[in-house]
Amino acid sequence: MLRTLQNLSKWLAAHASLFIIAIAVVTFFAPDLFTWVRGTVQTVILGIIMLTMGLTLTTDDFRILAQRPWDIMVGACAQFLIMPGVAWLLVRVFHLEPALALGILLVGCCPGGVSSNIMSYLCHGDVAFSVGMTCVSTLLAPVMTPLLMEVTAGEIIKINALGMFFNILIVTVIPVGIGCFLNYVFSRRASFPTVQSLMPGVSVTCLACIVGGVISTVHDDLVSRGLILFLWTFAVVFCHNSLGYLMGWLAGRMAHFNTAKKRTISIEVGMQNAGLATVLAGTFFAAQPLAVLPCAISCAWHSISGTIIASLFLRFGSKSKE
Fold first, then answer.
1. What is the mean pLDDT of residues 129-143?
2. pLDDT in the model for residue 119
3. How many Å apart are CA 109 and CA 148, to the nearest integer?
4. CA distance 48 to 179
5. Cβ–Cβ under 8 Å, residues 195 and 68
6. Cα separation, 24 vs 151, whole angstroms
7. 98-137 b/e with 16+ CB inside 10 Å = b?
């Protein structure tokens, strides 16, 4: 039974985007399946995702923050300047309605995605740098995400910055901290690697549930407004994500990073924690239900595009020996 669960976890990690898309399609035709993913339940699910991230982190991962301050500083600045700035620009270029604008701005202001480390590994990037960037952006998120939303979206809606601070703290930093503590205490036990091997499957399943909950929430709007709404929103998400990859790579080039680090910063900047954005949109912008749509599309698309960009890096460039 345990071996079956491990194989299932491995399969889900390898086919995360397909699984999430399948759940979204099924939910569109049967929206009642995920009506239970609302409010507190949605928050708890995201907390579980962040807990799984913490369970894979060790004290060595946090030493990177002290050992490579220049790399981490460049990465953090790129993360919290490029994606919010690109989102703000796209909102104006595409003339997005307020709800959709809030969604894409929220995705842009969130920290890096938890699956970016896997993508960096797949493309022979600097995995240690990737983990360090994910850690620091997650730790900074309780302050930076509300602050950036106030700057970029304050003219659209009143931002509850303090409430957002505590919400992000509860659903990201605290679960990651608990996971790290459990890893530190139990890492020497023979059974712990088995628990860790199940975490990717748990994380993907939880993310699929969040996406399913979003689709059930916006189902009626999608039906009434048709394919145009989806395609228009996807176009914005696609541009936001793609420009993130490009500008992240350019930031690495400007900082004179080697090839492996340029690949990593590109992926870290382009892939956002859209699951967190989804929960925040549902919690703080409930009066604008369509705000969760760009977040849900980002959840699925970032997984797909991350795999694509990793493959392109491998195909069109060799790993730097620097």
1. 90
2. 81
3. 6
4. 10
5. no
6. 32
7. bbbbbbbbbbbbbbbbbbbbbbbebbbbbbbbbbbbbbbb
- How far apart CA 222 and CA 216 sit, in angstroms, is 10
Nearest one of 161, 127, 107 to 293, comparing CA atoms: 107
| Residue 171 CA, distance from chain mean position | 13
In terms of Cβ atoms closer than 10 Å to its own Cβ (0-12, 13-18, 19+), residue 218 is buried
The interaxial angle of helices 98-109 and 69-93, nearest 10 deg, is 170
Choice between 57 and 70, residue whose per-residue pLDDT is larger: 70
Q: Is the pLDDT of residue 282 over 70?
A: yes
HSE of 129 in the Cβ direction (CA atoms, 13 Å)? 28
Q: Which alpha helices (H) appear in the chain, and where do they start and end?
A: 2-14, 16-29, 39-55, 59-67, 69-93, 98-109, 116-122, 127-153, 161-168, 174-186, 192-254, 259-270, 274-284, 292-316
- Average pLDDT across the chain, whole number: 87
Tokens 């492996």, residue? 260
